[in-house]
Amino acid sequence: MPSPPELDSTDRAILRLLQKDAALSLAAIAAEVGLTPTPCWKRIRRMETAGIITGRVTLLDPAKVGLPLSVFVALEIGDHSAGWIEAFAKTVSEMPEVLECWRMGGDVDYLLRVAVEDMPAYDAFYRRLTATVPGLRNVTSRFAMERVKASTALPI
Amino acid sequence: MPSPPELDSTDRAILRLLQKDAALSLAAIAAEVGLTPTPCWKRIRRMETAGIITGRVTLLDPAKVGLPLSVFVALEIGDHSAGWIEAFAKTVSEMPEVLECWRMGGDVDYLLRVAVEDMPAYDAFYRRLTATVPGLRNVTSRFAMERVKASTALPI
DNA sequence: GACGCAACAGAAAGATTTTCCTGCTTTTCA
DNA sequence: TGAAAAGCAGGAAAATCTTTCTGTTGCGTC
Protein backbone atom coordinates (compact mmCIF):
# COMPACT_ATOMS: atom_id res chain seq x y z
CA MET A 1 0.00 0.00 0.00
CA PRO A 2 1.39 3.39 -0.94
CA SER A 3 1.49 5.22 2.34
CA PRO A 4 -0.20 8.62 2.28
CA PRO A 5 2.09 11.64 2.22
CA GLU A 6 3.38 12.10 5.73
CA LEU A 7 3.92 15.79 5.14
CA ASP A 8 1.37 18.26 3.85
CA SER A 9 2.26 21.66 2.46
CA THR A 10 2.02 23.32 5.89
CA ASP A 11 4.43 20.78 7.37
CA ARG A 12 6.87 21.46 4.57
CA ALA A 13 6.52 25.22 5.04
CA ILE A 14 7.34 24.81 8.72
CA LEU A 15 10.33 22.62 7.87
CA ARG A 16 11.63 25.11 5.33
CA LEU A 17 11.58 27.80 8.00
CA LEU A 18 13.14 25.62 10.70
CA GLN A 19 15.86 24.36 8.39
CA LYS A 20 17.02 27.94 7.94
CA ASP A 21 16.63 29.02 11.57
CA ALA A 22 15.94 26.64 14.42
CA ALA A 23 15.59 29.53 16.87
CA LEU A 24 12.42 30.93 15.33
CA SER A 25 9.65 31.36 17.87
CA LEU A 26 6.41 29.49 17.45
CA ALA A 27 4.63 32.82 17.10
CA ALA A 28 6.85 33.78 14.15
CA ILE A 29 6.41 30.39 12.49
CA ALA A 30 2.67 30.50 13.07
CA ALA A 31 2.38 33.93 11.48
CA GLU A 32 4.41 32.80 8.49
CA VAL A 33 2.40 29.66 7.74
CA GLY A 34 -0.98 31.13 8.67
CA LEU A 35 -1.79 29.21 11.83
CA THR A 36 -1.74 29.83 15.57
CA PRO A 37 1.20 28.65 17.67
CA THR A 38 -0.54 25.60 19.10
CA PRO A 39 -1.12 23.57 15.90
CA CYS A 40 2.38 24.53 14.76
CA TRP A 41 3.79 23.17 17.96
CA LYS A 42 1.81 19.95 17.55
CA ARG A 43 3.04 19.49 13.99
CA ILE A 44 6.67 20.06 14.98
CA ARG A 45 6.27 17.68 17.90
CA ARG A 46 4.86 15.01 15.60
CA MET A 47 7.68 15.41 13.08
CA GLU A 48 10.22 15.15 15.86
CA THR A 49 8.80 11.91 17.23
CA ALA A 50 8.42 10.55 13.68
CA GLY A 51 12.14 11.06 13.14
CA ILE A 52 11.62 13.48 10.27
CA ILE A 53 13.33 16.15 12.35
CA THR A 54 16.56 14.57 13.56
CA GLY A 55 17.85 17.42 15.65
CA ARG A 56 18.59 21.07 16.17
CA VAL A 57 22.22 22.02 16.04
CA THR A 58 24.41 25.09 16.26
CA LEU A 59 26.75 25.75 13.34
CA LEU A 60 30.16 27.33 13.83
CA ASP A 61 32.57 29.11 11.52
CA PRO A 62 35.33 26.51 11.01
CA ALA A 63 38.03 29.13 10.47
CA LYS A 64 37.08 31.05 13.60
CA VAL A 65 37.39 27.99 15.81
CA GLY A 66 40.77 27.11 14.35
CA LEU A 67 39.83 24.44 11.80
CA PRO A 68 40.21 26.19 8.45
CA LEU A 69 41.39 23.20 6.43
CA SER A 70 38.87 20.82 4.86
CA VAL A 71 40.11 17.67 3.17
CA PHE A 72 38.20 15.11 1.16
CA VAL A 73 39.65 11.63 1.40
CA ALA A 74 38.75 8.95 -1.13
CA LEU A 75 39.44 5.40 0.00
CA GLU A 76 39.71 2.17 -1.92
CA ILE A 77 39.70 -0.94 0.16
CA GLY A 78 40.78 -4.54 -0.30
CA ASP A 79 38.53 -6.34 2.13
CA HIS A 80 34.83 -5.98 1.35
CA SER A 81 33.53 -8.33 4.05
CA ALA A 82 30.67 -7.31 6.30
CA GLY A 83 32.94 -7.50 9.33
CA TRP A 84 35.50 -5.15 7.88
CA ILE A 85 32.81 -2.69 6.83
CA GLU A 86 31.27 -2.67 10.27
CA ALA A 87 34.58 -2.22 12.02
CA PHE A 88 35.53 0.59 9.65
CA ALA A 89 32.24 2.39 10.27
CA LYS A 90 32.85 2.22 14.01
CA THR A 91 36.45 3.42 13.75
CA VAL A 92 35.58 6.33 11.53
CA SER A 93 32.56 7.36 13.60
CA GLU A 94 34.81 7.71 16.61
CA MET A 95 37.22 10.06 14.84
CA PRO A 96 35.99 13.57 15.65
CA GLU A 97 37.79 15.26 12.76
CA VAL A 98 35.82 13.11 10.31
CA LEU A 99 32.65 15.12 9.80
CA GLU A 100 31.19 12.99 7.04
CA CYS A 101 31.78 9.45 5.84
CA TRP A 102 29.92 8.02 2.86
CA ARG A 103 30.07 4.51 1.48
CA MET A 104 30.07 4.90 -2.25
CA GLY A 105 29.33 2.91 -5.37
CA GLY A 106 31.78 2.84 -8.24
CA ASP A 107 35.52 3.41 -8.31
CA VAL A 108 35.75 4.89 -4.81
CA ASP A 109 34.69 2.82 -1.79
CA TYR A 110 34.52 5.56 0.85
CA LEU A 111 34.54 9.32 0.82
CA LEU A 112 35.40 11.27 3.98
CA ARG A 113 35.32 14.95 4.77
CA VAL A 114 37.82 15.91 7.42
CA ALA A 115 38.24 19.24 9.25
CA VAL A 116 41.67 20.04 10.66
CA GLU A 117 43.78 22.95 11.82
CA ASP A 118 46.49 22.87 9.18
CA MET A 119 48.62 20.61 7.02
CA PRO A 120 50.67 19.07 9.86
CA ALA A 121 47.41 18.26 11.64
CA TYR A 122 46.13 16.61 8.49
CA ASP A 123 49.31 14.61 8.17
CA ALA A 124 48.87 13.42 11.74
CA PHE A 125 45.30 12.41 10.94
CA TYR A 126 46.43 10.65 7.75
CA ARG A 127 49.03 8.65 9.63
CA ARG A 128 46.54 7.74 12.32
CA LEU A 129 43.94 6.69 9.74
CA THR A 130 46.29 4.50 7.72
CA ALA A 131 47.77 3.01 10.87
CA THR A 132 44.37 2.26 12.43
CA VAL A 133 42.51 0.95 9.39
CA PRO A 134 43.96 -2.22 7.92
CA GLY A 135 43.83 -3.14 4.26
CA LEU A 136 43.55 0.24 2.58
CA ARG A 137 44.45 -0.19 -1.08
CA ASN A 138 44.45 3.46 -2.04
CA VAL A 139 44.06 6.78 -0.21
CA THR A 140 43.57 9.96 -2.22
CA SER A 141 43.49 13.29 -0.38
CA ARG A 142 41.93 16.34 -2.03
CA PHE A 143 42.19 19.73 -0.37
CA ALA A 144 39.43 22.32 -0.38
CA MET A 145 40.43 25.85 -1.33
CA GLU A 146 37.10 27.55 -0.75
CA ARG A 147 33.72 26.65 0.66
CA VAL A 148 31.50 28.04 -2.09
CA LYS A 149 28.31 26.74 -0.54
CA ALA A 150 27.58 24.74 2.59
CA SER A 151 23.94 24.24 3.37
CA THR A 152 22.09 21.85 5.64
CA ALA A 153 18.69 22.76 4.18
CA LEU A 154 17.20 20.03 2.03
CA PRO A 155 15.11 21.25 -0.90
CA ILE A 156 11.60 20.31 0.20
CA MET B 1 50.41 40.52 16.95
CA PRO B 2 49.24 37.06 17.89
CA SER B 3 45.67 37.72 18.93
CA PRO B 4 44.77 36.25 22.30
CA PRO B 5 42.63 33.15 22.22
CA GLU B 6 39.10 34.28 21.49
CA LEU B 7 37.70 31.22 23.17
CA ASP B 8 38.51 29.98 26.65
CA SER B 9 37.76 26.47 27.83
CA THR B 10 34.31 27.46 29.09
CA ASP B 11 33.41 28.93 25.71
CA ARG B 12 34.51 25.73 24.02
CA ALA B 13 32.52 23.63 26.47
CA ILE B 14 29.42 25.68 25.68
CA LEU B 15 30.06 25.31 21.95
CA ARG B 16 30.51 21.55 22.25
CA LEU B 17 27.10 21.32 23.93
CA LEU B 18 25.37 23.65 21.48
CA GLN B 19 26.85 21.90 18.46
CA LYS B 20 25.13 18.72 19.58
CA ASP B 21 21.83 20.30 20.64
CA ALA B 22 20.87 23.87 19.91
CA ALA B 23 17.66 23.52 21.92
CA LEU B 24 19.41 23.15 25.28
CA SER B 25 18.15 25.63 27.84
CA LEU B 26 20.54 28.08 29.41
CA ALA B 27 19.91 26.44 32.76
CA ALA B 28 21.03 23.06 31.42
CA ILE B 29 24.12 24.56 29.78
CA ALA B 30 24.93 26.52 32.91
CA ALA B 31 24.72 23.42 35.09
CA GLU B 32 26.95 21.51 32.67
CA VAL B 33 29.72 24.11 32.50
CA GLY B 34 29.47 25.18 36.14
CA LEU B 35 28.10 28.67 35.78
CA THR B 36 24.76 30.43 36.21
CA PRO B 37 22.57 31.12 33.17
CA THR B 38 23.44 34.80 32.87
CA PRO B 39 27.18 34.54 32.09
CA CYS B 40 26.40 31.64 29.74
CA TRP B 41 23.94 33.81 27.90
CA LYS B 42 26.48 36.63 27.63
CA ARG B 43 29.14 34.28 26.28
CA ILE B 44 26.77 32.84 23.67
CA ARG B 45 25.65 36.33 22.72
CA ARG B 46 29.25 37.42 22.27
CA MET B 47 30.10 34.40 20.11
CA GLU B 48 27.06 35.04 17.95
CA THR B 49 27.96 38.66 17.32
CA ALA B 50 31.59 37.68 16.73
CA GLY B 51 30.46 35.32 13.96
CA ILE B 52 31.85 32.25 15.69
CA ILE B 53 28.32 30.89 15.90
CA THR B 54 26.92 31.19 12.38
CA GLY B 55 23.44 29.89 13.04
CA ARG B 56 21.08 27.39 14.54
CA VAL B 57 19.43 25.01 12.14
CA THR B 58 17.09 22.08 12.16
CA LEU B 59 18.32 18.85 10.56
CA LEU B 60 15.99 16.49 8.72
CA ASP B 61 16.18 12.85 7.72
CA PRO B 62 16.80 13.03 3.96
CA ALA B 63 15.06 9.72 3.26
CA LYS B 64 11.98 10.67 5.27
CA VAL B 65 11.47 13.87 3.30
CA GLY B 66 11.83 12.09 0.00
CA LEU B 67 15.47 12.80 -0.87
CA PRO B 68 17.26 9.51 -0.29
CA LEU B 69 19.85 9.82 -3.06
CA SER B 70 23.11 11.68 -2.43
CA VAL B 71 25.47 12.25 -5.31
CA PHE B 72 28.97 13.68 -5.32
CA VAL B 73 29.84 15.49 -8.52
CA ALA B 74 33.44 16.25 -9.42
CA LEU B 75 33.89 18.98 -12.01
CA GLU B 76 36.83 19.93 -14.16
CA ILE B 77 36.57 23.25 -15.89
CA GLY B 78 38.19 24.91 -18.89
CA ASP B 79 37.87 28.57 -18.01
CA HIS B 80 39.65 29.57 -14.81
CA SER B 81 38.99 33.30 -15.04
CA ALA B 82 37.73 35.24 -12.04
CA GLY B 83 34.55 36.10 -13.89
CA TRP B 84 33.74 32.49 -14.65
CA ILE B 85 34.42 31.43 -11.08
CA GLU B 86 32.17 34.12 -9.69
CA ALA B 87 29.35 33.31 -12.09
CA PHE B 88 29.66 29.62 -11.30
CA ALA B 89 29.50 30.27 -7.55
CA LYS B 90 26.32 32.26 -8.03
CA THR B 91 24.70 29.66 -10.28
CA VAL B 92 25.49 26.81 -7.94
CA SER B 93 24.41 28.71 -4.84
CA GLU B 94 20.98 29.18 -6.36
CA MET B 95 20.50 25.47 -7.01
CA PRO B 96 18.67 24.13 -3.94
CA GLU B 97 19.60 20.48 -4.54
CA VAL B 98 23.30 21.42 -4.24
CA LEU B 99 23.94 21.22 -0.52
CA GLU B 100 27.67 21.73 -0.66
CA CYS B 101 30.05 23.14 -3.22
CA TRP B 102 33.79 23.24 -2.64
CA ARG B 103 36.46 24.75 -4.84
CA MET B 104 39.32 22.30 -4.75
CA GLY B 105 43.02 22.18 -5.40
CA GLY B 106 44.51 19.44 -7.54
CA ASP B 107 42.98 17.33 -10.26
CA VAL B 108 39.36 18.23 -9.46
CA ASP B 109 38.25 21.86 -9.69
CA TYR B 110 34.90 21.62 -7.88
CA LEU B 111 33.20 19.05 -5.73
CA LEU B 112 29.44 19.18 -5.19
CA ARG B 113 27.14 17.18 -2.95
CA VAL B 114 23.64 16.94 -4.33
CA ALA B 115 20.47 15.57 -2.69
CA VAL B 116 17.74 14.28 -4.98
CA GLU B 117 14.71 12.03 -4.96
CA ASP B 118 15.90 9.28 -7.31
CA MET B 119 17.94 8.59 -10.43
CA PRO B 120 15.60 10.34 -12.89
CA ALA B 121 15.68 13.41 -10.65
CA TYR B 122 19.47 13.28 -10.68
CA ASP B 123 19.49 12.98 -14.44
CA ALA B 124 17.28 16.07 -14.64
CA PHE B 125 19.69 17.92 -12.35
CA TYR B 126 22.67 16.74 -14.39
CA ARG B 127 21.13 18.00 -17.61
CA ARG B 128 20.27 21.31 -16.02
CA LEU B 129 23.77 21.70 -14.60
CA THR B 130 25.57 20.93 -17.85
CA ALA B 131 23.16 23.09 -19.82
CA THR B 132 23.45 26.04 -17.44
CA VAL B 133 27.18 26.03 -16.78
CA PRO B 134 29.32 26.67 -19.86
CA GLY B 135 32.76 25.23 -20.41
CA LEU B 136 32.68 22.10 -18.26
CA ARG B 137 35.53 19.85 -19.36
CA ASN B 138 34.64 16.83 -17.29
CA VAL B 139 31.78 15.82 -14.98
CA THR B 140 32.14 12.74 -12.79
CA SER B 141 29.15 11.58 -10.74
CA ARG B 142 29.66 9.30 -7.76
CA PHE B 143 26.67 7.85 -5.95
CA ALA B 144 26.48 7.35 -2.19
CA MET B 145 25.28 3.98 -0.98
CA GLU B 146 25.21 4.70 2.74
CA ARG B 147 25.70 7.67 5.02
CA VAL B 148 28.10 6.16 7.53
CA LYS B 149 28.56 9.40 9.44
CA ALA B 150 27.21 12.90 8.96
CA SER B 151 28.10 15.37 11.67
CA THR B 152 28.01 19.13 11.86
CA ALA B 153 29.98 19.24 15.11
CA LEU B 154 33.51 20.49 14.68
CA PRO B 155 36.10 18.92 17.00
CA ILE B 156 36.89 21.79 19.37
C1' DG C 1 42.79 51.51 47.57
C1' DA C 2 40.54 51.97 43.03
C1' DC C 3 39.50 50.04 38.68
C1' DG C 4 37.78 46.52 35.49
C1' DC C 5 36.12 42.18 34.53
C1' DA C 6 33.25 38.24 35.18
C1' DA C 7 29.84 36.10 37.68
C1' DC C 8 25.65 36.17 40.39
C1' DA C 9 20.77 37.04 42.19
C1' DG C 10 16.47 38.37 41.15
C1' DA C 11 12.84 40.36 38.36
C1' DA C 12 10.46 41.34 34.00
C1' DA C 13 9.39 39.99 29.52
C1' DG C 14 8.59 36.47 26.41
C1' DA C 15 8.21 31.67 24.79
C1' DT C 16 6.77 27.06 25.27
C1' DT C 17 3.66 23.58 26.65
C1' DT C 18 -0.65 21.99 28.50
C1' DT C 19 -5.60 21.77 28.88
C1' DC C 20 -9.89 22.24 27.16
C1' DC C 21 -13.05 23.57 23.51
C1' DT C 22 -15.01 24.18 18.70
C1' DG C 23 -15.94 23.02 14.03
C1' DC C 24 -15.16 20.00 10.20
C1' DT C 25 -14.71 15.57 7.92
C1' DT C 26 -15.22 10.74 7.87
C1' DT C 27 -17.18 6.61 9.40
C1' DT C 28 -20.74 3.68 10.84
C1' DC C 29 -25.10 1.91 11.40
C1' DA C 30 -29.99 1.99 11.22
C1' DT D 1 -29.74 7.47 2.26
C1' DG D 2 -29.60 10.01 6.39
C1' DA D 3 -27.94 10.99 10.83
C1' DA D 4 -25.41 10.13 15.04
C1' DA D 5 -20.78 9.31 16.50
C1' DA D 6 -15.99 9.27 16.25
C1' DG D 7 -11.73 11.24 14.95
C1' DC D 8 -8.94 15.09 13.50
C1' DA D 9 -7.04 19.75 13.09
C1' DG D 10 -7.16 24.18 14.76
C1' DG D 11 -7.84 27.79 18.45
C1' DA D 12 -8.07 30.30 23.13
C1' DA D 13 -6.37 30.76 27.46
C1' DA D 14 -3.66 29.57 31.39
C1' DA D 15 0.41 27.50 33.62
C1' DT D 16 5.09 26.72 33.33
C1' DC D 17 9.47 27.42 31.99
C1' DT D 18 13.23 30.41 29.50
C1' DT D 19 15.35 34.13 28.12
C1' DT D 20 16.86 38.64 28.87
C1' DC D 21 17.79 42.57 31.57
C1' DT D 22 18.71 45.10 35.84
C1' DG D 23 21.76 46.16 39.52
C1' DT D 24 25.32 44.14 42.75
C1' DT D 25 29.12 41.51 44.55
C1' DG D 26 33.59 39.37 44.51
C1' DC D 27 38.10 38.75 42.63
C1' DG D 28 42.36 39.95 40.50
C1' DT D 29 45.38 43.78 38.83
C1' DC D 30 47.55 47.97 38.81
From TrEMBL, chains A, B:
<protein>
    <submittedName>
        <fullName>Lrp/AsnC family transcriptional regulator</fullName>
    </submittedName>
</protein>
<dbReference type="InterPro" id="IPR036390">
    <property type="entry name" value="WH_DNA-bd_sf"/>
</dbReference>
<dbReference type="Pfam" id="PF13404">
    <property type="entry name" value="HTH_AsnC-type"/>
</dbReference>
<keyword id="KW-0804">Transcription</keyword>
<dbReference type="InterPro" id="IPR019887">
    <property type="entry name" value="Tscrpt_reg_AsnC/Lrp_C"/>
</dbReference>
<keyword id="KW-0805">Transcription regulation</keyword>
<dbReference type="InterPro" id="IPR019885">
    <property type="entry name" value="Tscrpt_reg_HTH_AsnC-type_CS"/>
</dbReference>
<dbReference type="InterPro" id="IPR000485">
    <property type="entry name" value="AsnC-type_HTH_dom"/>
</dbReference>
<keyword id="KW-0238">DNA-binding</keyword>
<feature type="domain" description="HTH asnC-type">
    <location>
        <begin position="7"/>
        <end position="68"/>
    </location>
</feature>
<dbReference type="InterPro" id="IPR036388">
    <property type="entry name" value="WH-like_DNA-bd_sf"/>
</dbReference>
<dbReference type="InterPro" id="IPR019888">
    <property type="entry name" value="Tscrpt_reg_AsnC-like"/>
</dbReference>
<dbReference type="Pfam" id="PF01037">
    <property type="entry name" value="AsnC_trans_reg"/>
</dbReference>
<dbReference type="InterPro" id="IPR011008">
    <property type="entry name" value="Dimeric_a/b-barrel"/>
</dbReference>
